[in-house]
What we know:
The complex is a heterotrimer. By secondary structure, chain B is an all-alpha fold. Helices cover 59% and strands 1% of the residues of chain B. Chain B has helices spanning 2-7, 60-66, 68-89, 117-120, 124-143, 146-156, 161-172, 179-190, 195-202, 217-242, 246-254, 259-284, 291-295, 298-301, 303-306, 309-316, 323-350, and strands at residues 97-98, 109-110. In chain B, helix 6 crosses helix 10 (217-242), helix 7 runs antiparallel to helix 10 (217-242) and helix 12 (259-284) packs antiparallel against helix 17. Chain C has helices at 14-19, 32-35, 104-113, 127-137, 153-160, 165-168, 184-188, 215-221, 230-240, 255-262, 282-297, 310-316, 329-335, 375-388, 395-402, 420-425, 449-462, 477-498, 506-532, and strands at 64-65, 86-92, 117-123, 143-146, 191-192, 195-196, 199-202, 209-214, 248-250, 268-271, 274-277, 319-325, 343-344, 364-370, 409-412, 415-418, 443-444. In chain C, the strands form 6 sheets. Chain C has a 5-stranded mixed beta sheet. Chain A: It is found in: Cell membrane. Chain A: Residues 80-279 form the ABC transmembrane type-1 domain.
Amino acid sequence: MSTIQKGIEDGPAMSSRVLKTVVLVVCCAVVVIPFLGVISTSIASQQHVTNSGGFVLWPDALHLDAYKAIFNGGVVQRALLVSVVIAVGGTLISLAGSTMLAYSLSRPGSFGQRPILMIVLFSILFSPGLIPNYLVVKQFGLLDSLFALILPTAISGFNVIVLRSFFMGIPDSVLDSARIDGAGDFRIFWSIVLPLSRAVLAVVGLFYAVGYWNAFFNAMLYISDTAKWPLQLVLRTYVINNTELSSGDLGGAAADQLPPQESIQMAILVVSLVPILIVYPFLQRHFAKGMLTGAVKG
Amino acid sequence: MARTDALNSLQTDRTTPSDRAGATGSGPPGTATDRRFGRRSGSRSGSRSGSRSGGKPLSWWARARRDKVLLLMALPGLVLLLVFHYLPLLGNLIAFQEYLPFVPFGRSAWVGLDNFAVIFNGDQEFLNALKNTLLITLVQVIFVFPAPIALALLLNSLLSERIKRVVQSVLYLPHFLSWVIVIAIFQQILGGSGLINNFLRSHGMGTIDFLGNPDSFIALLTSQVIWKDTGWGTILFLAALTQIDPGLYEAARVDGASRWRQLWHVTVPGIRGLIILLLILRLGDSLTVGFEQIILQQNLVGRPASEVLDTYVYNNGVLAGQWGVSAAVGLVKGLVAVVLVLGANKIAHIFGEAGVYQK
Amino acid sequence: MTVSRRTLLGGSLAAAAVSLTGCSTVTRSDDIAALNKPVALPTYKRFDGPKPDLPRSHPLMPDCFYRFPAKPAKVTDGAPGDGSKITGTTLTSNPIPPTADRNPYWQELNRRLGTPLELNITAATDYPNKFATSVAGDTLGDLFNIDGGFAYLPQFLEARAQDLTEYLSGDAILEYPFLANAPQASWRGCVFSGGIRAVPIQRGVMSTNTLLVRQDLLDKLGVELGSPNVDELQKVAKAVTDGKKNRWGFAVPPTAAVSAMLGLPNGWEVRDGKLVHSRELPEHKEMLAITRQMVKDGVIHPDGVAKNNQKVWFTQGSAVMTQDTYSSIQSFYRRATDDSFSISIPVPRAADGKVGRVLLGSPNNSIAAIRPSSPERTKMLLRVLNWMAAPFGTEEYLFRKFGLPGRHYTLNGTDPVLTKDGGSEVCLGEFPIQYLADGPYPAYFPGHPEAVDTAYNHFKAVLPTAILPPTYGLYSPTQSTKGKILDTRMDAITKDIQLGRADVNSWDDAVADYRKSGADAIRNEYEQALAIQGRK
């Protein structure tokens, strides 16, 4: 049975193996080389960045000034905490709301399914404007509350529909056998559907988490108290285009305060990627194959 | 039986040709297990009449009571959508107003369809923008859409789980770059003073205008999108691939199917439902093509080649804080998207697929 | 707000008109005369503060300082605030400062203001969105910087900003000596619908675009530029260009210099009793042809028309000349990695040898307004703004921009240098109150007195013939709704022509279309506005 762990597996021919390897190596190189540039630029010296026109492929030396600049002043650390709270809390809220909604839409013929499904679907196709959004958030007293960064984007119609389509793929026989044992809808959802859907939960959870992690626009609109700003919004203020009169033109002395703009920009990118790279391997475990096999056959 | 059920995963009615006799149309396999839960006997893609086990149709109220747990479960998500999406959507009424943010909401002057003039005045620039938009959508559906599927299949066929994980992680990275940075990177490499042209210049060869050539603009856009989002795009397909019952491959091998045949008859059908679902949703987005990506590069190629609907509206309405105009355009695009999605879904039904929702 | 007003925008506006809470209705947008009604501008009284190191030879001459004055004097006494909380909405181009509870600078600022200041700070690029939503949600606060691109600005200000006329018009402003230190050109941008409805964030001439030259590179290459006309400029550009060495004449097309050499107007200008726009003149086409030829000759950086990275190219030497503002000189010296780095600012010359007409930038960076308040509170808020406008060289200025000695800055000679804490807590010397009110913008490039001399000599040469934007402070409804769209369109065609994608003669069609789709209406409105102000 161990061979079942692999999908397609018939001692692939040498030629196809070589081909696959080549394709993947090329794909990775195309991605890795620019990323090398991103990291190199973030640690290169001012002179090197300037001389190479703003983008360094291989750094001359290790300068951590850009990172120091970002983490200077304590604003970033606090923002990091805010971001983690929003990403974790938000993802939990989103997953709870979305999976329950998707599950209720995945049971054929349930009451009100079609109108609810249309509500979900149309939410993808129409987007409300900036100002109405703001007025609603204000009306509900959420200005300057972290909930303003979670609730408005908590349910993504796209994710609900994806979840629903996966839930519908769970064999009826599995659910029905539970039903015969007297389990109610919620029990079935909680103890059968969710455990069987780990792969898609990991994916959708990642979608939500990345969404929360990268969001800055709502925070910019809804949060005045800069102590509650998430990381992305704080970092954003480091990479604003220098207009002619900004950034120490007057307080000229501030001159040496900031490393090259390009380095900071790239350092910010690296910083905001790290948490995602840390979390990702944990999620990836859930992409293991053949989830359904045991459950159904058993 | 169980095996076929697993295959049903993405609510496709047709799965492997060999294995799914009798699984078309009205009822999926497995209906035999149905007892008092009449719900199960209704076809997946069938009616939602409420007649469950062949008895007389249940009343509206009875069905609501029967499904009350499901309704309660739907409630939190539904309320969030209604409050934070549909309530502000009412604000799109400003599409018919000369909206002034400093006038209390709903009290701005009504101007009928004036704000829609940008869209319906039929001027040459608009038609050109529409043409570019549709062309770019078409090219991207042909080249961008299949890319993550192919990559997912390739990754899925890898023997080593470790290599697969590493490759996946690497390929996800570009997704997290903002367009500003992606374009900066492309310019560093392809620009007039970029790596390639500098090389050509220093060797006394003529330079190539990669970025400013209107004829190759769509190719440029497409390659940027492929670079940025292909890796990330595999994630859903890889999840779907895990849902395929390994037993099917086993069975196919027993039948002596080659690896290509396995791919064609087991793997592809297993993710077809998802492909169609995503394609339909992408279709709803037909009129939206990378606003940020294009506006950042519009200077290089000039507007005739690069103007799309979103940039047209931005350049002709939104720049002056014309909130009504942007709402009007949002409404029209939404309506077009609804028509396209409903239409595509209908076509999916005709071909026996479930699409986004059932009939 | 007792003046009886007309309703808004065209015929259907009764609804909007009655709905504006409180006072009254706002001016219709087709009533050009009412929108541009003049008012007695505040009296200009130069504050008798620190003496510039170089004598002012012209009213527009910025104060030129080699170094920060030693022993800056305190010029106010007592705190301007009354202890009640002041809220505000403003922007920054720098990393955000820590909040007041963790920011000793902010705490000291509150102490000196005598009132707690709560600011809603937004990144500059996001400000238009933030501003619009804050207007809709009525959350701007007591003091707010105004997004200049906001639609229906006069009507907005009528409805949501305090009319400051009685407090600032004429000699009334003398109550606020640092506000009175702003020239009338700046105040012109604060007048809407016959009232002074904002205070200026002055920039004087420092925001003017000019041709900047790497003098050290010219010297190295043995090329002489001097004070060039069009031909000489082109010759020098060709002489210094060497593609194989990654070196080009210009980072971007030098439109400012060429415009000055050809004597083009600064946007709209009255010629023969009629307003014309620069774009309508044959000289403008000539400028297009010249810059197009420059691109063709390869003397402009290959990415120069399309991509804005000129600061980097100029600093690293892959462009010998660039176009940027006078104030940017400071940032170039800061970025420079080469000790010999030195900038010169050539005086453009017309073909007949006369000094070219330099087109000056807007006198203000932006404007800021006050929420409608009681007379006492309005006066208090004006005192606070006045405090924020204390000029360069005073003790108040030193604190405002550099914070507390020791913690936020140290002295290099007499020039303050921000410390690490200063950088973050004082927001790199640009704490966002500088977008609520600020003093005159000096020519001060710390550590580079020679650059101050360069700028000073340049100003002395060009200011007598330089022109301010003639329509600054006039309001044209068409300009405010369609102006940006038209500008974008014309800029796109300009680029097409410069890059050789379109023929120079296609400019004529573009101009015809430009006039038809808005420019003629704008002209008409500006002419009415000039007439009502008696400036025509």
